[in-house]
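so the lab meeting is tmrw and i was supposed to have these ready like two days ago... anyway. pasting both below. for each one the top line is the aa sequence and the line under it is the structure tokens. i havent really looked at them closely yet so no promises
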Amino acid sequence: WLSEGISVHEERQVDPSWGEQLTPKYREMILGGELTPISRLSAAFLMPKTPLHLQFAYYEASLVVEFLIERYGPGAIRAVLNDLRDGEFINTSLARHTAPMETLESEFATFARTKAEGLAPGLAWDRPEFSRDAGVNFESLMETWAAEHPTNFWALDFTAESRVERKEWEAAKEPLQTLAERFPQQTGGQSALARLARVHRALGETNAEVEVLTRVVQREAAAPEACLRLMELAAAAQNWPEVVRVADRYLAVNPLSPGPYRLLGEALQRSGTPERAIGVYETVLELEPPDPGRIHDQLAQLYLPIDRATARKHTVPALEEAPRNREALRRLLQLTPPPAGDTVPEIPNPR
């Protein structure tokens, strides 16, 4: 657990958007007594009750590392790592370099609870006394309860989601904007900012959508839908530097997705960076796209001024996929010298 905790903690130190963050569910788990004692934290990785508990184990481990550094200094962590290298048990080493395990666990539990209680202090976090077990009356009960608790996270979240589901786009803005203002660090596809971007898109408010998507991408390392949409909008506006910026951020997290490579290749090609565009399109081919002929055609165009042999090599498979591509036919004829005495046939332009 210490290794994983250090990894997630260091991610947050480099860029707060990278590592696991405190979420409303994690808040409830901490305050609900679901912290695993430090002495048994490895078991949280080896025998988690659910996938969520496994993910929570990564966050808790990083929180333990943060606590140890704040309370005992980075030297204590280094001393423990040296002991582990020499075969010492982690619990014995922690007690030697920090405090007795019982004291350490008590101090950490207080540290974690303080963190949880400090999440989005501008919002109330109490749950309604009823649940979905209330049956058909749940929606109406929740609407009444939400109206009586205008600054409650669960009330605002319910109101926003209900209005989005009913496609009441304009009305959905208010609760989402309140959530985004009071809980700006929320992440994920159901964050207030992510849903607000969808609302702006539905209303055709492109400038507002771009502004919100930019905030999402800045706050989240892995925001694939937001990144792809932001790239599409930037490409439509021919803002090629923005396409390159967002694509680079996306591909740093998920380098095996062909979609961003396509947009990145186009942006590099149009912004006068053909050398890098060639590398990007060759990567797309390695990912086995459904339309390789189009990628071969792009590569043939890029290679034509600098490497005629390679341009021809890509033109042939481009024509195999699209034999009526007249530009590719002209290029092939241009790249294939006719036998002595023959002339290159003219290919008429389509009317």
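ok protien two:
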Amino acid sequence: MMGANHAITGAAGWVALTASAPVLTSGLLPLGPVGVFTGAIVCAGAALLPDADHHNGTIAHSVPVVGTVVAGAIGQMAGGHRQGLHSLLATGGVLALSLLLGVVQVETELFGQMPVGAGVATMALVAFAAKALKLTHGSWVLPWILGFFTAAGIIFFAPTEINWLPVAITVGFIIHLLGDMLTIGGVPLLWPLKPKPLLWWQALPILNSIWQKNGYFALPILGKTGSVREWILGTAVTLYVTYVLIYEGLWAFGINLTSLLT
């Protein structure tokens, strides 16, 4: 799946969990409009994290030279693209790291305890999402400026909102893996193990595309990465996210879209 579609599906997963719109939202983690909006872009950025192993991905292009070097190093440690970072083991590691970031704080005289770890993570994820979704134009600096002001706004004006950060990061990461599983390449969920199916399984036309002979797993209904089907899905998901965010935005000003339409 392409970077922009990873990002928008990450945002969609977040609004589906947290928003109060009456259609296609679960209410499993209900939040106010601030949490829905900021969490959506953070989750969108987190949905790009598994591709930090790709030398030509969004994260690699987030900072000139440095981004490419870092992505290359991560790719080598992970064993290459769609290797270690596309696994259940990596998902657990991301959850643990996001929880750890939440407790990294600095004591200041003016503002007391400042959640520096969560703030830096939020800034980076917003920057990644902004670049992938083309929310900013021009130099690579603009996404980071947006990320900085978003993180600062949360920390100074809605500090309790940062409590959902580990959930948003983990949800975005999982949604990325699910997205790649919808393509024919699949993902090595059990990495570093890559168990191969038995010969009889490999001979079955449909099952052999789900559990592949290289140990990857997929449900390849989208076909190849960047296919027409993938872009149709991305367009539909974009419309869904737009609808939910409009609903939440109006709700923030006391306007109930549902009552206006009934």
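from a quick look at the 2nd one: The chain has a mean pLDDT of 91. The first helix runs from residue 3 to 18. will dig more after coffe
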